[in-house]
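RETRY 2/3 - previous attempt timed out on the joint model. Re-submitting the same 848-residue input unchanged.
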Amino acid sequence: MTLFRRARRFVSRARFIFGLGLLLSAGACSRHEPPADVTILNGAEPESLDPAIITGQPDSRVVLGLFEGLTRPDAKTARPIPGLAERWEISPDGKIYTFHLRTNLVWSTGEPIRADDVVYSWIRVLRPETASDYAGQLYYLKNGRGFNEGKIKDASLVGVHALDPFTIRVELEHPTAFFLDLCAFQTLNVVPRQTIGKYGDRWLMARPLPSSGPFELVYWRLNDKIRLKKNPRYWDAANTQSEIIDILPVGAANAAINLYLHGQADIVWDKELVPVELLDVLLKRPDFHTFSYLGTYFVRFNVTKKPFDDPRVRRALALAVDRERIVKKITRGGETPALHLVPDGTANYLPPDGLSYNPAQAKKLLAEAGYPGGTNFPRFEYMFNAAAGGGAKTHENVAVELQEMWRDTLGIKMDLRQMEFNVYLGAMDRLDYSLARSSWIGDYNDPQTFLGMFVTGDGNNRTGWSNPDYDRLVGAANGEPDLTKRAKLFQQAETLLVQTEPPIIPLFFYVGINYFDTNKISGVYENLLDIHPLQTIRMLKPPK
Amino acid sequence: MYFLKRILFAVPLLLVISALAFSLVHLAPGGPFDHERAPASPEIERSLKAKYHLDEPVWKQYCRYLGDLAHGDFGVSLKYRNHSVNDIIAQSLPVSMTLGGLAFCFAMAVGLPAGFLTAARRGCWPDYVGGFLSLLVICIPGFVLAPVLILIFSIKLDWLPVALWESPWHMILPTVALGLYFAGKISRLMREGMLQAMQSEFVTAARAKGLGENTLLLKHASRLAVLPVVSYAGPMLADLLTGSFIIENIFQIPGIGVFLVNSSMNRDYTVVVGLSLLYAILLIGLNLLVDFAYTLLDPRVNYE
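RETRY 2/3 succeeded.
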């Protein structure tokens, strides 16, 4: 009897607890909101949505929907097309740009967008107190660098001025072939002055948040969801294809593929969200799309360290790498072998030939350098970073493959060292390594974004390599208004970088991978920058 | 009085914890603003550090931090620069607490009866089956269990969602995946406690007095047997409420566990220290609660 009564009490208690749990969860989740037209899995949680602060690609894909620049990227090609500016004139020397704003521009909250707002937004990026990582994107402006470094205090000396409410005059340090590309880059987007003045660093929490782009921010829940709705006041709102877009920050590839296959997501557009183990199967599906991407995977030498201070040794190692083997055996996503740093297809450019696989030549060079058959060659270390997601395995596998190739071809011994990301970066900066895994993703479609990095003293050089000829060629190319001559100069520079005395070994060019069903979604195009403006994206069939 | 003393003692303890967390995370190589892409000028990094006072000596930063903390301000995240640590806690702690609370209830609801039953039927088949199952769920780590559960219940049977945190249905798999390990632990603790209690003198005395076996087990033995479970439940609840990196990652749950782990990788100093303090507060609070529960459950315990 007691047992029975006890049991009943227990059951009733359990029911209470279960009910309470349900109630709690229902309370946490009673979100009566309309379903989104399109749901996109976007990779890691954005660090910020402030155009001046962001550096990552997942961040910029959202920000491009909220804020626009003078130009904007074309959905198909990612090349700049008129944005807030409807037209512009460029002076013959390529240093003065005069932009004419559209006259019908308003913020999503109704106030007009004028030339002053553009000037404010650019100067804001350069102000030291904004602490913008990407302030360098505005160093092309006259006095941009000096102002950002605090050497020039007067903002009016910076080369951007509003001539009248609809005209902006931009003065550059030297002709910059990709300046219109930069105008479409997120750092140069136009942001709301009043809101920033009122809320300071927390301005993105303001609701409503004035936006200059095709979408407005409905909410931004950390690690959960970003909801955007169409901005009806955007100048080109007639061509915005979706009313509501949900962007989910999903970082795990397995969760991404599960959500996609179960119809919880329509588009997955981060390469990190493709499970590497399933690549062979997934790439055969019609809804998986791979395309060339403006990124290169390469190896850095520390040229200040023996024996890698000898260009013959570096060339020998480069010649002994069979890149075909790496892309076929390890990456397997359709990557192409890289003999040079600037990816094929980069605008305004024709890359030089690099050092292709040639074991005989490699052995000969190593012998010339004093290490015939690898004798007396000191043991050295190859450093690579541990990364979240599928990337880590790739780095490790590439390292093992290189280790094997160099041992078999050259008879030299290499140890592998995996490091935590920050430690790895620090070691590279201090030149405390021999060889290091590296990669570079272009910000804009121009060789400068790749070749500028190996100029003497550049923060991204990280090899200790310094070549006055290279510096001179890159400098001359940057000052050259004629695109053909400029391309030639860059090509000569890159020849030094990948052939004559290479401080790097390019291994392969990245591919971008997106997955979505083309029968259901339209308006997502593959392009070199992996940029996909949100306003062209549309669901073709209504969701189930 | 005793509990008041304990609470007062917690303040210096928290200070020590914050100082340790603060200095350890600052000692780690690298900083929150390290990116693969170096800024165009060293000045950029300098102004970043100046903005967040990272250019000051660590002790000064710590004093500044304590000053803000006294006003209830945990500071601004250095990785998610638009969010304060308070924002992060306010948004993600309720999610983790819901999941942790559900997992706690699940672990108790499964573990206690299982432990009771295996002890009551000691040496019979329920004991063997229960013992085997509890050992099994203790041995299977979450990163194996969760994908297996998803495979069975979401992909093969299509009963439950694969991931995300939207409706009560979304909560079932993460709750089970998180709670099952603790259910196994609790059932084993409960079983041991019951067996010990059943051998104790007062149970023998009660049995000699002719008390029925069921009453004996339920009313007298179980009350004593549950004590080890209670002392385990405090830290376990603190563990559950602060989220699980693995479960949150696999099910894409916007909880605090992901921040707890990622912040130290990102060298997000303020978040690391803030969340360490939060965890410490929860742990201290729950341990206090456990000790208080002891006084209610066990008449032999008296702290005065």
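Chain A touches chain B through 66 residues (CB under 8 Å). Closing ticket.
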